[in-house]
């Protein structure tokens, strides 16, 4: 889970843990790259607008280093629809527009896990 908003990151992580998933959390793409270099994920959920290393840079990095990882891109920024289309072009398997219900995240993860 890569999300710069601490409260949202914690809530989304708790949602996934309660659904039975193991979760590693990072506040930005740079921190996520360090974590994933040691323990590559099966599924990565990344926000798009973040400091240090944004979600599109992170998505490209994940695609290059872990081509098998499935990526869910999330965004609530001003140009969220456009930027999420770009994320799909770059390799995101799924996108979610903030705000979304926790059940929508679980459903997306479940679809990608199977």
How would you characterize this protein structure?
This protein starts with 5 loop residues before the first helix and ends with a helix. It is α/β, with parallel strands linked by helices and 114 residues long. The protein has five helices and three strands, in the order ααβαβαβα. The protein has a three-stranded parallel beta sheet, sandwiched between helices. The chain has one domain: Rossmann fold, CATH 3.40.50.2300.
Properties at a glance:
114 residues; alpha/beta; Rossmann fold; three-stranded parallel sheet; 13% strand; globular
Summarize the SSE layout with pairings:
Layout: H1 6-18, H2 29-38, E1 43-47, H3 55-65, E2 70-75, H4 80-89, E3 94-97, H5 102-113
Parallel strand pairs: 1-2, 2-3
Helix pairs in contact: 2-3
Strand content range: 5-15%
**Helix count from the secondary structure assignment:** 5
- CATH topology, anyone? Rossmann fold
Q: Please give the domain count.
A: 1
Can you summarize the main beta sheet? 3 strands, parallel
- Rg, rounded, reads 12 Å
Terminus-to-terminus distance: 19 Å
If strands are numbered along the chain, what order do they take across the biggest sheet? 1-2-3
Architecture, CATH level 2? 3-Layer(aba) Sandwich
CATH superfamily, by name, is: Response regulator
């Amino acid at each position: 889970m890569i999300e710069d908003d601490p409260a949202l990151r914690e809530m989304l992580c708790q949602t996934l843990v309660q659904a039975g998933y193991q979760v590693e959390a990072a506040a930005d793409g740079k921190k996520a790259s360090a974590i994933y270099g040691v323990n590559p994920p099966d599924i990565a959920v990344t926000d798009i607008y973040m400091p240090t290393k944004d979600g599109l840079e992170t998505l490209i990095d994940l695609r290059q280093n872990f081509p098998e990882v499935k990526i869910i891109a999330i965004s609530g920024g001003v140009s969220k629809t456009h930027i999420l289309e770009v994320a799909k072009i770059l390799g995101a398997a799924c996108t979610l527009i903030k705000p979304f219900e926790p059940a929508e995240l679980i459903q997306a993860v479940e679809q990608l896990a199977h």
